[in-house]
Amino acid sequence: MRIKNRGQYGEELACKYLLSKKYSIVSTNYYYKNYEIDIIAKKEELYIAVEVKLRSAPFIVSPFDAVGKFKQAKIIQVMNRYVQTNTINKEVRFDIISIVLYEGSYKIEHLKNAFYPSLSI
Fold first, then answer.
1. Got the DSSP string for 4-51?
2. Contact 114, 76 (CB under 8 A)
3. How far apart are the C-alpha atoms of 95 and 51, rounded to whole Å?
4. Inter-residue contact 106 to 13 (CB < 8 Å)
């Protein structure tokens, strides 16, 4: 499986997972300044920016650990743009969905509130 196709496959699995948990999918692959949010979802009045990480077992770096501070900052920046552009005045959460592929199966883990925007003074 090619890298681009793997990413799309992971995002499709994540969307199906979120839909099964009663989230609605607002946007996929939302770009701003060459950075993207994989999935923007909504549950009730809460907007959720979701970063999807797909790995094949065995792996060296955990999918959750692969979303470092730089990546978090870019996701926050893109979500801020989305909120401003769409005049959204609702709470926002940042989640990570980890998908680990095994031969013939996969495991999905959903880390809610995976990171928070930091306040700089």
1. HHHHHHHHHHHHHHHHHTT-EEEEEEEEETTEEEEEEEEETTEEEEEE
2. no
3. 6
4. yes
For residue 79, give both structure tokens: 């979500």
Domains in the chain with CATH codes: 3-111 (3.40.1350.10)
pTM for the full predicted model: 0.89
Contact 81, 88 (CB under 8 A): no
* Per-residue pLDDT tens over the stretch 109-120: 999 999 998 755
- Residue 52 φ/ψ, nearest 5 degrees: -105, 130
CB atoms within 10 A of CB 28: 18
